[in-house]
Specification:
Layout (H helix, E strand, L loop, with lengths): L10 H14 L3 H16 L5 H13 L4 H44 L3 H29 L5 H6 L1 H17 L4 H15 L3 H4 L8 H4 L7 H17 L4 H15 L5 H13 L7 H40 L3 H29 L3 H16 L5 H17 L1
Helix pairs in contact: 1-4, 2-4, 2-5, 3-4, 3-14, 3-15, 4-14, 5-13, 5-15, 5-16, 5-17, 7-8, 7-15, 8-15, 11-12, 11-14, 13-14, 16-17
Length: 390
């Protein structure tokens, strides 16, 4: 057996990177997926383009938060179970701590009126940031916007456009669409033997903030509900929000409509995965134990799914049919992510000031190379406060 080459990075480097991404990675799943590609494939060269695409396809096929799954898979690529575990924890813990602290403030002061003003600016800037990330993913994963390239990859572009359309219309990502695109691309590009020639088929302040206020029955309900959210909802934070709303507001009545909107706002203005809003919701319902149970119940299924699939997925990834399957899925996945950007854009860019903020964010990313995303987010937050208070 050939000896595997030593990775270009250490386990410590990997953990530090995901701690940093979890602390400063604003913009939700689309932006986070784009950051990982930019940092780990383009800049650092820790992963090949092929390894990244495999991880993105696997992350979309398994239920749970997209960015967290991709991070877990990236940790697995060169460091197996321990790499996946450390990457996942490092990615989630910073934003979890932030939402718990915000939950304490929410309980203490009874609301986050200032957050709506901050989100007014931040939400628009985030659209610009994730729009640029989606564009980069498109030209890297499918082809450049040139007629010759589009013509030679027309089927992938068809999957891409279909992914956009279905996501915008249904406002959720359809895993069956991704599977269908992958299977169809295999049948066209690498038709199996049984199609060409029929044969056999193959197979204190803590008290005032409710830090430890909970009851056992509520914790059990939280655990079961959020486990279902983590195990059966596919795609990004955009897909999980309607599911959370139905249970948290409609079924259990844990939060009011206004509180739920605040919870989503908290997730959008904090770094890391958007799904970390479950920690904020859990805190409001049952204090710190509720936050821990909600976060663990949501993220554990995606960790287990990724770990179960990753070894098998990696071994068969060199197969030409599997490569075609991944290419077909990836095209539709990127289309779905672009569709998510469009949906969030309609919700965040609501007037001329927010449109100008979004455009300014894109121009800053294009022409001010040293200006990083967190600084853009901070400037947008200040602008939003100024617009709403003056």
């Amino acid at each position: 057996m050939d000896k595997q080459p030593k990775p270009a990075y250490s386990l410590t480097d990997l953990t530090k990177y995901f701690l940093k991404l979890g602390t400063w990675g604003f913009g939700g799943p689309v932006a986070l997926v784009g950051y990982m590609h930019r940092d780990l494939v383009e800049t650092k060269g820790w992963l090949t383009e092929e390894e990244y695409k495999e991880g993105l396809a696997l992350a979309q096929l398994a239920p749970g938060p997209l960015a967290a799954q991709l991070g877990i898979y990236i940790g697995f690529v060169h460091y197996g179970l321990i790499g996946a575990t450390l990457a996942g924890l490092a990615f989630v813990i910073p934003s979890f701590i932030m939402v718990v602290l915000l939950g304490m403030a929410y309980r203490l002061y009874g609301g986050l009126v200032w957050m709506q003003a901050v989100f007014y600016g931040v939400g628009a800037a985030v659209i610009g940031i994730i729009g640029m990330s989606a564009y980069k993913l498109t030209i890297k994963s499918i082809s450049k916007f040139q007629w010759a390239a589009i013509g030679s990859n027309w089927l992938l572009w068809l999957f891409y456009v279909t992914g956009i359309a279905i996501t915008v219309i249904t406002e959720k990502e359809e895993v069956l669409l991704f599977l269908a695109c992958g299977i169809l691309y295999v049948l066209i590009k690498v038709p199996p033997q049984w199609i060409r020639k029929p044969t056999l088929l193959p197979a204190a302040i803590l008290i005032s903030t409710g830090f430890w206020k909970y009851d056992g029955k509520t914790l059990q309900q939280i655990a079961w509900f959020f486990a279902k959210a983590g195990a059966f909802v596919f795609g990004s934070g955009l897909a999980i929000v309607p599911f959370l709303h139905g249970g948290v507001v409609k079924e259990f009545g844990w939060l009011t409509e206004h509180q739920f909107v605040d919870a989503v706002a908290v997730a959008m203005i904090t770094p890391g995965p958007v799904v970390i809003t479950v920690g904020f919701i859990g805190y409001l319902v049952a204090g710190f134990p509720g936050a821990c149970v909600a976060a663990l119940a949501t993220f554990l299924p995606c960790y287990l799914f990724t770990m179960a699939l990753a070894p098998y997925f990696k071994k068969i990834a060199k197969n030409t049919a599997i490569k075609a399957f991944v290419e077909g899925i990836t095209a539709s996945v990127i289309g779905a992510l672009v569709g998510s950007v469009i949906i969030m854009g309609f919700r965040s860019v609501t007037d001329i000031p927010t449109a100008l903020i979004a455009i300014a964010a894109v121009l800053a990313l294009l022409y001010v190379k040293k200006l990083q995303e967190p600084y853009i987010i901070g400037i947008a937050a200040i602008v939003g406060l100024l617009i709403k208070t003056l």
